[in-house]
Design brief:
Blueprint (H helix, E strand, L loop, with lengths): L10 E3 L4 E5 L14 H8 L7 H14 L1 E9 L2 E10 L6 E3 L9 H15 L4 E8 L3 H9 L3 E5 L3 E7 L1
Antiparallel strand pairs: 1-2, 2-3, 3-4, 4-5, 6-8, 7-8
Length: 163
């Protein structure tokens, strides 16, 4: 579901090899990402792999909150899903689920594309509800595109970017 009153694009082209594809209810390929305890720890702060039902509930929840996309990369003439991101002005949870694609600057490119979407929609700021203190890669990624911590939480900080 798109943000109320706003049409969600089917595709946002991030660059020549990376795109965001609108959530279509098919997510079976993502199950393996959320079986990895390290990934789940960075997302939820616990080391408990998702069940199929947990994954379904997560995607249904995120799809109701804002624009849910799968992050896809062009590999040998077809797009391969490697992560997910949800965009709305009060949060931007992002996961590069396929470990082979972490640390390659993809998340930063995705976030920059969504910053541009926020500007196009007339938002004055974007926020990230929480990044855990131990999730240094995520903190550095958001900070590298201009987000700054504005409030401490129990496990980390909330971040925002003035547009």
């Amino acid at each position: 579901m798109a943000i109320q009153g706003i049409t969600q694009p089917e595709i946002i082209q991030v660059d020549g090899n990376i795109r965001l594809r609108k959530y279509d209810g098919v997510y079976d390929f993502a199950f393996d990402w959320y079986q990895d305890e390290e990934t789940v720890y960075l997302v939820d702060g616990v080391r408990k792999p998702y069940s199929q039902e947990t994954l379904k509930c997560m995607y249904e929840y995120l799809n109701k909150q804002g624009e849910l996309y799968f992050i896809e990369i062009l590999e040998e003439d077809s797009y391969l899903p490697i992560g997910d991101v949800t965009f709305w002005k009060d949060d931007m949870p992002i996961v590069i689920g396929a470990k082979a694609y972490r640390g390659k600057g993809i998340a930063g490119k995705v976030i920059r594309a969504l910053i541009e979407r926020g500007k196009m929609l007339g938002y004055d700021r974007l926020r990230v509800n929480e990044i855990y203190e131990f999730n240094l890669a995520s903190r550095k990624c958001f900070e590298s595109v201009g987000f700054r911590a504005y409030e401490q939480t129990e496990k980390g900080n909330r971040f925002e970017l003035e547009l």
